[in-house]
Amino acid sequence: MKAAVVKAAGEPPVYADFDRPDPRPGHRVVDVTASALSHVTRSKASGSHYSSKGTFPFVAGLDGAGRCEDGQRVYFFWPQAPFGAMAQQCLVSEANCVLLPDTVDDVTAAAIAIPGMSSWAALVERARFVAGETVLINGATGTSGRLAVQIAKHLGAGKIIATGRNAAVLASLKHAGADVAISLEQDADALSHAFASQFHEGVDVVLDYVWGASALSLLIAAARTLAEDAPLRFVQIGAISGADLLLPAAVLRSAPISLLGSGIGSLPLPRVLHTMQQVFDATARAGLQIATEAVPLADLGAHWGVPDSRQRTVFIPSP
Predict the structure, then answer these.
(1) pTM for the whole thing?
(2) What b-and-e string marks burial along 90-102, b requiring 16 or more CB atoms within 10 Å of the CB?
(3) Residues 6+ apart with CB under 8 A from 65
(4) What region holds the Enoyl reductase (ER) domain (predicted)?
(5) Which CATH superfamily is domain 2-100+289-316 in?
(6) What are the residues whose beta carbons fall under 8 Å from the beta carbon of 197, sequence distance 6 or more?
């Protein structure tokens, strides 16, 4: 079969032949119809993700949509190595397959699952969000952040504060449910003041997709501004501005801040899949939207390294 094959560490996958998976008890052979390109997929393929095994060759791809032998449409997650999602077929544990509602097409399902889970799980599973609370989404102009605004609105956030660098997208987020938009393209003092003003009014949960300088500014502003009876749950999700942060210890000692992480590994897998099922069920009902570009898998090389901050690239079977 044809697949996106990673042949060595540090090399991007190539469109090449790979053995088809054999049936196995407790697993399903899935005919793949769509598999999205995500930050996690890229980092796992490169060997930099904490779940990478370092065994080659293998097929790239963490999740996708497809059909089982009995014709059921499913979303599947974490195929059995070395059979990744970016192939004509993959092998998946039965427990890692979620039935797809008819209201969600395969490309949308593949595109929305991981970014939708990232904010839904962060809010519901990690932060224990309560309807009516105020949510600040740091890095809301990326694909996942834009979806996080919609999901926070759907879950009943009383106020949503969005930050980002893309001015046009930031402005458009007010139509998606954001009440306040803060540009990260301002000097450190102005940004700190903007954050402090919001914390003074009250922020219950921060969803951070970027880490780096803006996250540090947020945490310091919160430490300086939060009242003793106004605890903050800061949930770290992504790190597109850098993996490391030099955080003064006093920040966590001087204010009621709970620093949490949300991602693959922070939740039991059944809860991750349950969250994805909730995202699928809410997609049509809440009108959740994610921009996608469906691309034949044979065109893998032209799209693998292209940034996808505005739309999610989804690989589909080549003609």
Answers:
(1) 0.92
(2) bbbbeebbbebee
(3) 32, 33, 34, 35, 73, 74, 75, 76, 100, 106, 107, 109, 110
(4) 10-295
(5) Medium-chain alcohol dehydrogenases, catalytic domain (3.90.180.10)
(6) none
Amino acid identity, residue 189?
Answer: D
Taking the chain (319 residues) in consecutive chunks of 10 residues, what is each chunk's mean pLDDT?
91 94 95 92 72 79 95 96 96 96 97 96 98 98 95 98 96 95 96 97 97 97 94 94 89 95 91 96 94 95 80 91
- What are the CA-CA distances from residue 210 to residues 28, 43, 76, 230, 233 (Å)? 36, 16, 27, 24, 16
CA distances (Å), 139 to each of 8, 40, 123, in order?
A: 33, 17, 16
Q: What superfamily does domain 115-261 belong to in CATH?
A: NAD(P)-binding Rossmann-like Domain (3.40.50.720)
Q: Where are the beta strands (DSSP E) in the chain?
A: 2-6, 14-17, 27-36, 58-59, 63-67, 73-77, 89-93, 97-99, 134-138, 159-164, 180-183, 205-208, 232-236, 257-261, 292-296, 312-316
Could you tell me where in the chain the CATH 3.40.50.720 domains are found? 115-261
